[in-house]
Specification:
By secondary structure, the protein is of the alpha+beta class. It contains 13 helices and 13 strands. It has helices at 14-30, 57-72, 75-78, 146-149, 174-179, 187-194, 235-238, 264-268, 276-283, 291-295, 392-398, 401-413, 442-449; strands at 99-104, 110-115, 155-160, 163-168, 241-242, 245-246, 305-317, 322-330, 336-339, 344-346, 357-363, 369-381, 421-430. The strands form four sheets. Strands 7, 8, 9, 10, 11, 12 and 13 form a seven-stranded mixed β-sheet that branches. Strands 1-2 form a two-stranded antiparallel sheet. The longest helix is centred in the first third of the chain and has 17 residues, at 14-30.
Amino acid sequence: MPDRTPLFPPALTLGALSAFLAALVWIGFSHPAEAGKGGKPKPGGSGHHGVTTYEGSATCKKCHSKKVQEVLNAEHYQWAGKLGKINDFCTYPDINWLQQITVKAPDGTSKTTVTGCASCHVSYGEFTPPPLGGPMPVQEDRIDCLVCHSDAYKRVGTLVNGKPALIMDPSLNPATVLAAIKKTPSAQACLNCHARAGGGNAVKQGDLELAMANPAFDLDVHLAGTAVGGAGLTCVSCHTVSAHKVAGKGNDLRVAEGSGMKTCTTCHGTAPHGSGNLNKHYSRDKQPLDCTVCHIPSYARGLPTETRRDFSLAEFDAAAGRWEAHRTLGEDLLPVWRTWNGTSFFYHLGTAISGDTLTLAGPNAGTRLYPFKVHTARMAVDQASRLIPLKSAPLWSTGDLNLARVQGELEVFGDNLGSVRFVETTRYFGLYHQVAPKDQAKQVCARCHNK
């Protein structure tokens, strides 16, 4: 006999049935984020699986609570290699985290904006980092997941409840931005921050710029698309990701995390050339060459990169829309070669400096030769021979470097020792990107064989 079990129990009255159906409609359409199994949103519809509003990880953790905890423990949130450390660009991110400044241009115009180092942090920048480094405050509801996971996303600095913060650009439609979410961050997402490090596109690293999200073949053969003869890779093709820890460590980075970083030999082996003599360059006993020595014949081949910053002089940077220390730029530059054992040395904040020169960061000597960008700076030292961290607000606003030094020293060291002298600093950046077409490697030969 056919199954004649009623669809609804006999005790369910017509009124109760109507109420039951109405509840289903209300749950499914008014609360799409709760309509799926286990409270997860159902696929389809507008936004991201029906989610059309966004409040950072407070929204995302309803489905991705484990991922939120991973981010909190990762270097993109912790910034353990940046906080409490002095550098030759902003000099000290801890006191330049996020601030409202009014820039007074030479023509008499002024503009008020919210900006700072937090502009590239994966949070909303609403907290203050520890004054001398240490673990970041835990804000599991205020991670900005879309910085990495939606190419349609953009944020701006503003005041929220009177405090500097970063918010989604009000001109964007949140549902559209959420609909563009990608599980794996694109090259564009990575470059939005990493190519703009140091205060502008291509400024800091020398081998990164925004155009490398979709570069020409002769700019980077790995990131160039297959349609133009490239490998069609993205950043995470080599910088593999596990539990939100991104593998890879350059010479200038203090912190290494993750595992499984792919190197040249991962794909190409240690003897990729038809000629045995060429292969010997990599495997020889005395000072072997890394592949990048020959295959990155020059850097800053697209846009100029900064080679020097003079903190004794200020100038108005029209492109950035603020005052900066005097910069020197260069393009299509020859790398400097140094041996490297994979570890590095760094100047520690507060260490007394003897003499007039200092290496801020550099490779510890090894056997294999690698290419580097060299960045120099003229930096201020106090009476205790300590490098002085600058407070960026007076510099960015009016070009007042003296006030920037005084405020920086007070905030970091708790004192101001007065008179200042300057030292010459040097910093090395490893070069790993802008791998040129193989036929360009020949131009490197003369650097060794014509000697």
